[in-house]
Design a protein that fits this description.
- The complex is a heterodimer of chains A (270) and B (263).
- Chain A is mostly helical.
- Chain B is built from 13 helices and no strands.
- Classes of the chains: A mainly alpha (270), B mainly alpha (263).
- Chains A and B meet through helix 1, helix 3, helix 4, helix 5 and helix 6 of A and helix 1, helix 3, helix 4, helix 5 and helix 6 of B.
């Protein structure tokens, strides 16, 4: 009994450590004081500022559009790569599997720096075209799409594809009508992982972005260096909105997969 | 000749992409690390790194930071994962989701929140740079330690624990001789997921207070100074450390299964 209480207490303490700052920030995002710990009055001014300051809305839209483009490209590239490599001979598959691991184990700083040196210093690409930035994000995200598709390919019954061919389907038709529907959950999961990776990235963005373009990450870091309290408190509002979205997504996704898969393998769905 | 589609060909675009944007950049930084501004072969970047007290000091400081962060994360996360895995409460997955969810929130926004709260509690964050670094990194990386540990501990066969009790082991002995050794793969993947970011994620320090350096910040400052050669050398040294960690823990296969678990 004692043990149980101690155990729950530990879980509680750790959750408190993880959530206390975010919750405090959320509370103060609804107040008119720029200093945490002081008292203030309820106000929505931070939210109004967040959505009416052009600099902030442009930055948020830029981040979202980059994440979307990155996720679309990474999902197509990673899915094709996974299907192709899965059915390839050893040499090709070995190369893709090994090279796919590199951006995953590598430090983001090194990935970002090396892409910057190749594309911008050596090849002289123009940063302001946003191409180096997009390529960098795709490098970061595609390996995870690949890794989320491969397990679905392994689970798939290979005979179905053969049967489709025997029944007269072309390889392309069999792929579209038999393989793709079966690996779709992996592709969709990969897409969302790509979106979150792109939204979360700081390092690759710093090394490849044009001077005038900011994502949420680079913007927040620059804002903490300066002392503009106006911008800072608007970011509290942004943090609160993102936090609520993520929490809802995780909890809804969790209960949905619980309902769907029963208590046994819901863990895989997180 | 008529073109025939084969599904193997689908891997070609990704293979080319990997060659151009993953392999080629690494080759380029190897070239840059061992040449000077005139393009001649040079070991100057290497010797500079090991003779400058600034850079070598940074290396040791970041190793210290990474080691401490990893230990703190492990000591906090292991009991969490163990309690969660052992408990039979009904909403276990929701609870686990709560521990993992911060992973998906933009880390700069979370550090922004932490900074505000720490400032409220401590006043000036620069008074305790080491402690605040550890707090910041633990705050950021904890989910990455909890998840692999939980995954491994969930797979732990409860019958083995029961058998240990039946054979007269105390709870502590059963834990130390059965559960702990069997969870080593989880510990290893958790450690690899925390150690490396802790050596390189300089933004956390940058945001909390703006002073001490870790390995990642060296790359950042060389980047700002357009010194591609020295920056490449730091990257190579980091790559070597990464390679040593993954090789010594046989991390490639671990990591893969682990990332699949994240998905």
């Amino acid at each position: 009994m004692m043990k149980k209480i101690l155990g729950s207490a530990w879980l509680g303490i750790v959750l408190l450590f993880m959530y206390f700052p975010i919750v405090i920030l959320a509370v103060y995002s609804f107040m008119d004081t720029p200093t945490i710990g002081t008292s203030g009055h309820f106000s929505l001014q931070n939210y109004v500022k967040l959505f009416t300051t052009p600099e902030l809305t442009e930055m948020i839209m830029g981040t979202l559009s980059l994440a979307f483009k990155c996720a679309v490209i990474a999902t197509i590239l990673g899915t094709m790569g996974a299907i192709g490599a899965f059915y390839s001979r050893k040499g090709m598959r070995g190369f893709v599997v090994a090279a796919n691991q590199i951006p995953i184990v590598n430090a983001d700083v090194v990935t970002g720096f090396s892409i910057c040196v190749l594309l911008i210093v050596v090849l002289g690409m123009d940063k302001s075209t946003l191409w180096p930035l997009l390529i960098g994000h795709v490098v970061l995200a595609t390996p995870f799409v690949y890794l989320s598709v491969v397990p679905k390919l392994k689970q798939m019954d290979n005979h179905l594809y053969e049967a489709a061919l025997d029944l007269g389907a072309s390889p392309a038709q069999a792929l579209r009508k038999i393989v793709l529907p079966q690996i779709a959950p992996g592709i969709i999961a990969g897409f969302f992982i790509a979106v979150t990776l792109s939204l979360d990235d700081y390092f690759i963005t710093t090394y490849t972005r044009p001077a005038t373009f900011n994502t949420i990450s680079t913007y927040v870091v620059n804002a903490t260096r300066g002392s503009q309290t106006e911008i800072k408190t608007a970011l509290w509002a942004l943090s609160t909105i993102i936090f609520v979205i993520i929490l809802l997504a995780v909890l809804i996704g969790n209960t949905m997969s619980n309902r769907k898969a029963g208590e046994k393998n819901e863990y895989n769905e997180i | 000749m008529k073109y025939r589609f084969a599904r193997q060909q689908l891997s070609i675009p990704y293979a080319v992409f990997l060659l151009c944007f993953v392999i080629a950049p690494l080759l380029v930084i190897v070239y840059y690390a061992f040449t000077n501004g005139q393009g001649n072969f040079s070991l100057a970047n290497l010797t500079d790194f090991f003779t400058s007290p600034n850079t070598i000091g940074t290396l040791f400081y970041s190793l210290l930071i990474a080691l401490t962060t990893t230990w703190v994360c492990l000591l906090i996360a292991y009991p969490v994962a163990y309690i969660l895995a052992q408990s039979n409460i009904r909403q276990k997955t929701v609870l686990l989701a709560l521990f993992i969810a911060p992973m998906w929130v933009n880390f700069t926004l979370r550090i922004l929140a932490l900074k505000e709260v720490l400032t409220m509690l401590e006043g000036n964050l620069a008074y305790y740079p080491f402690m605040n670094t550890i707090i910041g990194m633990t705050f950021d990386f904890l989910p990455f330690m909890i998840l692999p540990l939980y995954t491994t501990l969930m797979k732990l066969d409860q019958d083995l624990m029961e058998a240990a009790y039946d054979l007269g082991a105390s709870r502590t002995a059963a834990f130390a001789r059965v559960a702990l050794p069997l969870s080593i793969p989880g510990i290893i993947s958790g450690v690899t997921m925390v150690f490396l970011p802790a050596m390189t994620n300089y933004v956390i320090l940058d945001m909390l207070y703006n002073s001490t350096y870790i390995m990642g910040s060296l790359i950042g400052s060389y980047f700002n100074a357009f010194d591609w050669h020295s920056g490449s050398m730091i990257s190579i040294i980091l790559l070597l450390i990464i390679f040593l960690i993954t090789w010594s823990t046989n991390g490639f296969s671990e990591k893969e299964s682990d990332r699949e678990a994240v998905l």
